[in-house]
């Protein structure tokens, strides 16, 4: 799952979801068929999952098998009406995964053919039936959709309709594959029991094409629940626009593809309501909005103010926004309630440059950014981030 392409492994069918059965080695004879014309094949093959005549097989099943003395291995899966199912062979050539979830209640026949260096082929066959559609399914969704163009700090965000049990998160993660062009190292990280993110080791390279696929439809989660659907998304990373704010200078430096394109005077949070030091991401953008803090701050400190060019950075209410009332203090004094104040002119300009997923790093304030207060994926080192994966970094 890690590395240039986030690799996805293949999930063995959970014990107890199919009828038990021990596979027998095949030397050319197919179960239920006549003896092969060449029974003395050097190669051997056996399908281990799903077992022959198994029923109630999860729709997410992979075809697991063993071979010996095989120089070439091929897998074929056909539905009961003879339609072939596409799939991919694992790197270790011990399993084969259909390109999508199988149909609920349908029957299939898997055939594994192993060819030895003598040119003779041995086959193993297993006919099985997929379980009926369960009543307890969990939706899988993506924050981003096809065709999105996002900033270089944007994590790939996947959400689940309910909490994924701890013991099943590695199973889910092995069915999640990210392909970046150009290739970039990265990892998935569980942000919460219902949410998982993917980020590369460094910011995405500008103009990267990203494809991610979740082969999760029918995947067991225990206690009779299953993931509902597969999911694929194709999107693009935009230019490398990066913002850096230094509290000591009260300036924001904006770079695009590595070049400084503007320096902006700012006013940050005053001492009683400091801005957060850390790396944040633009979560949403609003040309016009209203800040209402009476409930949060009370009648004495609270306010209700019209805001222009607002860009959310945290769930707690930190934004970059135009603040014409503080233009006299911008560049010299912090007077905000935690936001990054800029002038109307600079706010309009910056709003026109940024997109969702663009990163901003604030330095030197009295308060550190709390992980989870926004998309704080970049507020951790890559090693710290990888600790949130259900699969150890060394095994990815």
From TrEMBL:
In its keyword annotation, does this UniProt entry include Acyltransferase? yes
Q: What pathway is this protein said to act in by its record?
A: Cell wall biogenesis; peptidoglycan biosynthesis
Cite a single GO BP annotation.
cell wall organization
Q: Which PROSITE patterns match?
A: LD_TPASE
Report the Pfam families cross-referenced here: Big_10, YkuD
Locate the active site. Answer: 321 (proton donor/acceptor), 339 (nucleophile)
Tell me which UniProt keywords the record has, alphabetically: Acyltransferase, Cell shape, Cell wall biogenesis/degradation, Lipoprotein, Peptidoglycan synthesis, Transferase
Q: Which InterPro entries match?
A: Big_10, LD-transpeptidase, LD_TPept_cat_dom, Transpep_catalytic_dom
Q: What is this protein called?
A: Lipoprotein-anchoring transpeptidase ErfK/SrfK
Q: Give the highest taxon in the source lineage.
A: Bacteria
Q: Which GO terms describe its cellular component?
A: extracellular region
| Species, as recorded | Asanoa ishikariensis
Can you give the residue ranges of the L,D-TPase catalytic domain? 241-363
Region annotated Disordered, chain positions: 23-54
Q: Is Acyltransferase tagged as a keyword?
A: yes
What GO molecular function annotation could you give as one example from this UniProt entry? peptidoglycan L,D-transpeptidase activity
